[in-house]
Design brief:
It contains three helices and three strands. It has 77 residues and is an alpha/beta fold. It has a single domain (7-67), classed as 3-Layer(aba) Sandwich (Rossmann fold). A three-stranded parallel sheet has the order 2-1-3, with helices on both faces. It starts with 6 loop residues before the first helix and ends with a strand. The model has no long low-confidence stretch (mean pLDDT 80).
Length: 77
């Protein structure tokens, strides 16, 4: 949980500002509906806790190379 907003509102703001960035959701919510909602909001991937550090490293590197030419930013929500 974020202190002042939820991850979905962060994604909406990123999209509204037309920020070109990869979005990886890291959440304890692991239901299929939560994952689909996050991806439909515009996240590039959805990772549930707990997870192995190798898995997140792989996902970040994959997203980094995918968005390398579009933006130097990586947003976690």
């Amino acid at each position: 949980m974020l202190p002042d907003a939820d991850g979905f509102s962060v994604i909406e703001e990123v999209k509204k500002r037309n920020i070109k960035s990869g979005i990886l959701i890291i959440s304890a919510k692991d239901s299929l509906n939560d994952k689909i909602r996050g991806l439909n909001y515009g996240a590039d991937d959805y990772l549930t806790k707990p997870f192995h550090l190798t898995k997140i490293k792989t996902k970040i590197l994959r997203n980094h190379f995918h968005f390398y030419f579009n933006s130097p930013h990586c947003i976690f929500a």
